[in-house]
């Protein structure tokens, strides 16, 4: 089964008490964001990781799923391997 996920890694600079206080503040104002959170997006999913490893080894890989926004994300994450 083809799968592709975007894994988001976040790095919180606060301890549990500070972070809880920030969440309470957002809740009190009925929504919003917490600025200053370092984030990294990584490609994930078994099928896409295997395809990536095979492509690095020089194997030609073919996608088996329809056109979608996911395809655009895959092209972005594989841009160095596709050229």
Plain-language structure description:
With 83 residues, the chain is α+β, with helices and mostly antiparallel strands. It contains 4 helices and 2 strands. A two-stranded antiparallel sheet has the order 1-2. It is elongated. The protein starts with a strand and ends with a helix.
Output the keywords.
83 residues, 4 helices, 45% helix, alpha+beta
Task: Give me a quick take on this structure.
The chain is an alpha+beta fold and 83 residues long.
Would you spell out the secondary-structure blueprint of this structure?
Blueprint: E1 5-11, H1 16-28, E2 38-44, H2 46-56, H3 69-77, H4 79-82
Antiparallel strand pairs: 1-2
Q: Distance between the terminal alpha carbons, to the nearest Å?
A: 26 Å
The share of residues in extended strands comes to: 15-25%
Strand order of the largest sheet: 1-2
Largest sheet: 2 strands, antiparallel
| Helix count from the secondary structure assignment | 4
Structural class by secondary-structure content: alpha+beta
Characterize the overall form: elongated
Rg, Å, rounded: 18 Å
- In terms of per-residue confidence, which ranges show pLDDT below 50 for 5 or more consecutive residues? none
Mean pLDDT: 82
What proportion of the residues is helical, as a percent range? 40-55%
Strand runs, count? 2
- SSE order, as H and E? EHEHHH
């Amino acid at each position: 089964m083809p799968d592709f996920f975007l894994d988001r890694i976040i790095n919180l600079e606060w301890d549990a008490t500070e972070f809880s206080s920030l969440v309470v503040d957002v809740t009190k104002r009925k929504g919003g964001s917490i600025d200053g959170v370092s984030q990294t997006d990584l490609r994930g999913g078994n099928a896409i990781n295997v395809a990536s490893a095979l492509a690095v080894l020089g194997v030609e890989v073919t996608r088996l799923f329809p056109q979608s926004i996911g395809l655009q994300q895959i092209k972005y994450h594989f841009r160095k391997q596709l050229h």
